[in-house]
Specification:
- By secondary structure, this protein is α/β, with parallel strands linked by helices.
- It has one domain (3-120): 2-Layer Sandwich (Macrophage Migration Inhibitory Factor), CATH 3.30.429.
- It has two helices and six strands, in the order βαββαβββ.
- The chain has helices spanning 14-32, 74-89, and strands spanning 3-8, 40-45, 62-69, 98-105, 111-112, 116-117.
- The chain has a four-stranded mixed sheet with strand order 2-1-3-4, with helices on one face. Strands 5-6 form a two-stranded antiparallel ribbon.
- α1 runs antiparallel to α2.
- The longest helix is centred in the N-terminal third of the chain and has 19 residues, at 14-32.
- It starts with a strand and ends in a 12-residue tail after the last strand.
- The model has no long low-confidence stretch (mean pLDDT 95).
């Protein structure tokens, strides 16, 4: 049940915002091999004065934070990072203006499907990839 947040420092058009969300969503679905219904992606647009990034990155600096279940291999994480970088690059985000933070939590720390611990639920997909 990955949950992603995209944080940006500039205004984009509604179509561009939709493309940013779709880029991250598609990258996560493909890299982590999760069904589309399992992921949520949020976009946060900050005024530049409220989001300080590296001084040399400017207004296109982008932070993607992804929370997911523990269990993916380093190889899978590498695929994920490259997929996000590639897809956001197609949206005009330079690779060196992007930071991806992956936070993993054990399944028992997530409540899903009516408040059940995810460790008690058959997910329908494999986490240990």
């Amino acid at each position: 049940m990955p949950t992603a947040a995209i944080e940006i420092r500039r205004n984009y058009s509604p179509d561009e915002e939709t493309a940013l969300i779709a880029a991250v969503q598609t990258a996560v679905i493909e890299a982590l091999k999760v069904p589309p219904w399992t992921i949520s992606v949020r976009l946060f647009v900050h005024e530049a004065r409220r989001f300080a990034g590296p001084a040399d990155k400017g207004e296109r600096y982008t932070l993607v934070t992804l929370d997911c279940f523990t269990g993916r291999s380093l190889a899978t994480k590498r695929v994920l990072y490259q997929a996000i970088t590639h897809r956001l690059g197609l949206c005009g985000i330079p690779a060196d203006h992007l930071k991806v933070l992956l936070r993993e939590a054990p399944r028992e720390n997530w409540a899903i499907r009516g408040g059940q611990p995810a460790s008690d639920v058959a997910l329908g997909y494999d986490v240990a990839i």
